[in-house]
Design brief:
This protein is of the alpha/beta class. It contains six helices and six strands, in the order E-H-E-H-E-H-E-H-E-H-E-H. It starts with a strand and ends in a 6-residue tail after the last helix.
């Protein structure tokens, strides 16, 4: 059975963030996703989830770099130390919020050069938090030029090499259609 989840960064944006939970529940959603839950206190988000009877389906990781760095960098050269530090921070928030899924943004890098770094970083996360489900997703190159995972073949290769059942693919129909031209065929 399908369960729809309201992305609170895209829906109900006319409302202050804390009011979006109530709006999602009133609209019939049972769950919400928060791509970047790092701007406020996790306990306030937890309270909003509980008081509105909502599950947290997904958060994004790693947290944003407020010093101007690019979001997502798991495939960039020399990314391991930063990735590990930022994932620890993300997982402290996840421990408070209990998301079903943590979506890891992989960022930009040449696919051939990025693949082993991605495997190393994603495998590390899967090993560190074996009870947490993680996902990655390919992004279309038109809107995300240089994405480290630009298609399903590259993503499948990386996930096969990671080899952990708690690390998987997030299927995004929009990106599937943009990448292949036929989301249903994917």
């Amino acid at each position: 059975m399908l369960r729809f989840s309201a992305n609170l960064s895209m829906l109900f944006t006319e409302l202050p963030f804390e009011d979006r939970f109530r709006a999602a529940a009133a609209a019939g959603f049972e769950a919400v996703e928060i791509p970047s839950p790092y701007d406020g206190a996790a306990r306030d988000i937890r309270r909003a989830l509980l008081s509105n009877g909502l599950l947290l389906s997904q958060i994004g990781a790693p947290p944003p770099n407020y010093t101007g760095g690019r979001p997502g960098y798991a495939g960039e050269p020399e990314s391991e130390a930063r990735f590990q530090g930022d994932m620890r921070r993300a997982m402290r928030v996840a421990a408070e919020l209990s998301p079903e899924i943590v979506h890891i943004a992989v960022g930009n890098a040449e696919v051939a050069e990025a693949e082993e770094r991605l495997v190393t970083n994603l495998r590390w996360a899967a090993q560190q938090w074996p009870s947490q489900v993680f996902v990655v997703s390919p992004l279309n190159a038109r809107e995300h030029p240089g994405c480290a995972l630009p298609d399903y073949d590259a993503t499948a290769r990386v996930l096969d090499k990671v080899g952990f059942t708690n690390m998987g693919l997030q299927f995004d129909t929009y990106h599937a259609a943009m990448i292949t031209g036929d989301a249903l065929a994917v």
